[in-house]
Amino acid sequence: MTLPADDWPRLTEVFAGARALRADDRPAYLAAACGGNETLRQEVESLLSSDERAKSFLEAPAVVWGDDTRVTRNLEGQRIGPYQLASRIGAGGMGEVYQARDTTLNRQVAIKVLLPAVASDPDRLARFRREAQVLASLNHPHIAQIHGFEDAEGVHALVIELVEGPTLADRIVSGAIPINEALAIASQIVDALEAAHEQGIIHRDLKPANIKVREDGMVKVLDFGLAKGLDVPSSAGVDLMNSPTLGAHATETGLILGTAAYMSPEQARGKAVDRRADLWAFGCVLYEMLTRERAFGGDSPTDVLVAVVTTEPDWTRLPAETPAAIRTLLRRCLEKNRARRLDSATAARLEIDDALATPTAKTAVDLGRIQPLGTGVPASDHESPRRRKRHWAMRSGVAAGVVLVVSAGVWRLWQQDYFWQNPLADATVERLTDFAGEEFDAAISPDGKFTVFLSDRDGPIEAWVGQIGSGEFVNISKGHSLAYNRTIRYTGFSGDGAQVWFLQLAYTPGKNQLWLAPTVGGAPRPFVERGMNPIWSPDGKSLAYHTNDPGDPVFIADRNGSNPRRIFGAQPGIHDHYPTWSPDGRFIYFVSGVPQTEEMDIWRLPVSRTGTAATPERITSHNARVEYPAWLDARTLIYSATAEDGSGQWLYAIDVEHRIPHRVSSGIAEQYLSVAVSETRPRRVVSTVAVSTASLWSVPVSDRVQADTAATRVAVPNTRALGPRFAPGYLAFLSSKGAANGLWKAEGGAVLELWRGDQGGVVAPPAISPDGRVICFSYRKQGTAGLYVMNADGTNVRTLVDSFDVRGAASWSPDGEWVAVAANQGDGSRLFKVPLDGGQPVRLLDTLSFNPVWSPDGRFIVYSEQQGGGAFQVKAISPDKASVPLPALEVGYTIATPYRFMPNGKALITLEGSLGAQNFFWVDLEGGQQRQLTDFKTGFVIQNFDVSPDGTRIVFDRLRDNADIVLMNLTR
Q1: Predicted TM-score (pTM) of this structure
Q2: For residues 143 and 154, is the Cβ–Cβ distance under 8 A?
Q3: CB neighbours (10 Å) of residue 138?
Q4: Could you tell me the residue ranges of all domains in the chain?
Q5: What is the DSSP letter of 901?
Q6: Fewer CB within 10 A of the terminal residue: the chain, N end or C end?
Q7: Tens digit of pLDDT for each residue in 579-631?
Q8: 760 contacts 781 by C-beta, under 8 angstroms
Q9: Which residues pair with 491 in a beta bridge?
């Protein structure tokens, strides 16, 4: 949390005031109460969002803090309405359960009394009632029925059908269940799931303890208390701990394991779930019935969840007579890739019913032909005893060898995965900076005594260095960010820590300059021209760095930068960044990929001090934005990477031998933008942590160069608003009040949310049809993106192209029949046009291309293509693939900079510059003349923009990271 401790009382006060208001009244109240304090406002909105998530009956609180909120008073012998309570028979995530008698109908029922934490909140209680009504619609013989809801003297209770008999968990304790009996139970379970799924409800907590088997064999599925509507997107994003029994109390270990063991991989990763999560849990239950063992076990909840995500069940434990169809069914239910998992309870029921109708002997595995590993294959009747003995010895020896090899590999993975401990879990954290500006790219000296980072505190971005703990920092690059139209980017320490380096990044490709300055103060001096991210070898004798030449080649040089030898890299469009030596000096690790499409990973290369070519080896497979690798110990790399769920930039650690990455955290809620580690022990880690904000701003299109003060903020109350696009009568934009971006629009003074995905987010500004009635957008979920369209009122969302890895914004043709997009089909970003009638995408270009924008007259599409040196040139192509001449126009530097047409189609508005020095330019497409429109000097980090339909103004998103540099003192 970046909010100072002195502001916490104010945070509590504002939160309480906002919480008491209706959701529609909160933005105005927060604007007034926070008085321009954006950090305070963001923290309050975050708390409100968490509070909304906790209100859901169907999404019970994951951890209930404190005994006063968890324990109800003993109600045995008391009365609630017409119900006389007898003994307490259990407790769950939402309350305690009593056996009771319905005095009106003279029948036995179960009463679930809500926890005070739920019952005392009017909003949560109202939500509870509404969703209980939904669950009451599940009138099915294999689902325990909800009878009603009671309020009496401040006690709120749910009346549920009382089901006599043991739970399935009790039954399994006594031993594995015979196949035919297990299949009969399984058929009734999937019958219940089938009925619930048909009503749009998923259970989300199916396990043996939630299933009862009566004496007559009737199965009842209990506790749909975590059920969730399939077609209702969560209003608050994904709840990481979406199990009611993932608690904080050590006495509930059994409950914790009991839920974690049946979680699907997507639940374990904190992602949204659908009915396939129920099919996974069903597979776990069926496996356990047949084997008496859990499909995924472990000594702690973390161990169990790791097993769910990374291991397979031990299929050899299944009874030998298990029908082949049931074996296949189990494998399909327990498929970790949700896209390949069985997605229909009906299909599961039919397979089980068919197996029950077939005599077990006819489907059993032939034990005479298939034996467990290590037992040997039965000899023929004609084999002699000596031959059988020789075969036994030989085969047993081979089998034992195989077992040893496999066991060794499994044991290494077990050590890496099951005994993994978060190295930052016990770190003490302190904030090092308190600048008003933005801070980033922090580094720490090898001895852990100094830090250097970049900041725009005094206007332009400069490098600042200071002794840790002193609170004093010195600008060591003052004036260099303004020299020769350059800015400062990247900084760090020399191998001995005596000097600080920083990169003077030129807008003109090939003109970068590294500088060195004494750590304790002194004038900078030029170092390696065009060099970037230098790193000294462990013995201090060599230097590795990369340049921004085409392919970003990696070089090794002598320690002073002389005698450079290229060792890797010359692939156009591929960037090789952040080289770092392994602690033993044998390898150089580096990040390689395409930053624009966030397809980057860590690779390593054997060190060749002579420049001999070598083949790199891939270490990670994130296929995401990866940055700042640094060594925690001799074999553990820590680095920053975009999370798989799209939730932002996080820290990861990976053992470079076992190659299993783990997300790590010091408990800081913010995003991790950079990371660096000292060489001292215990290690000290510095990181830039930030909460990213974005707002919409407007500036007139004018002949005069306009200063920062010419920009005005667009009145959109969202904490994050970005990716603006004009349409007839409204402005569309992206916003992320939850876990990922959704689509919003501002129309007639109102701001409305149009759509939010439940498994990912919108990844680029939308494209809007010429009449404004239909919106096309790219939506990324589970690592892939598709192209979708919907009505402008948020209704009728439909797929245009599924599994189409769209990269960036789409552009609608003026005739309304096509959208142009850049997409990756395994060979990099290419240009496509996609028909709106549902036809197949048409590939327009075979070169790396980005940012297509259709001209207003529809005659051509402009796009950017990477040139030598890293810049992007704007080109044009007709819809029938003919090249269209344009004035030579280079935009941006190492990023595919956005651009938009003026309404008359005769000029482009482009965005040029880097980081805080971005400005808008007018480019005449007929004559090639270019003029600057704005003179933004500080604090304008712009990602996307659009030109109004009348051509009078530009609306853009202004991104800001409320960033701080923090120090983490580790225990090892």
Answers
A1: 0.43
A2: no
A3: 20
A4: 5-53, 55-162, 166-365, 433-529, 531-690, 697-962
A5: E
A6: C
A7: 999 999 999 999 888 765 567 889 998 886 655 556 788 888 776 778 899 99
A8: yes
A9: 502
Verify whether residue 205 is a known catalytic residue: yes
E strand segments, 756-871? 760-762, 767-768, 774-781, 784-791, 798-801, 805-806, 811-812, 818-824, 829-835, 842-843, 849-854, 861-866
Query: What integer pLDDT is reported at residue 385 of this predicted model?
Result: 34
| 723 vs 728: CA distance, rounded Å | 17
CA 194 – CA 188 distance, rounded (Å): 10
**CA gap 579, 544 in Å, rounded:** 7
Which pair of tokens denotes residue 531?
């060099």
Judge whether 893 and 507 are in contact, CB under 8 Å: yes
pLDDT tens-place string over residues 862-881 = 998 876 655 678 889 999 99
State the Cα–Cα distance between residues 454 and 490, nearest whole angstrom: 7
CATH number of 531-690: 2.120.10.30
What is the residue-wise DSSP string for 203-245? -S---GGGEEE-TTS-EEE--GGG-EETTS--TT---S---TT
Q: What is the CATH number of domain 55-162?
A: 3.30.200.20
Dig out the tokens for 507 from the structure.
């807008």
Are 89 and 97 a contacting pair, CB within 8 Å?
Answer: yes
Closest CA to 492 of 616, 378, 577: 577
pLDDT in tens, 813-832: 999 999 999 888 767 778 99
Distance from C-alpha of 639 to C-alpha of 672, rounded to nearest angstrom? 9
Q: Give every strand in the sheet of 83-91, ordered side by side.
A: 79-80, 83-91, 95-102, 107-114, 155-161, 146-152
Class of domain 433-529: mainly beta
- Catalytic one among 205, 274, 417, 655? 205
How many alpha carbons lie under 13 Å from residue 835 in its C-beta half-sphere?
6
Largest CA distance in the chain: 102
CATH superfamily of 166-365: Transferase(Phosphotransferase) domain 1 (1.10.510.10)
- What is the residue-averaged pLDDT of the chain? 76
- Amino acid in the structure at residue 202: I
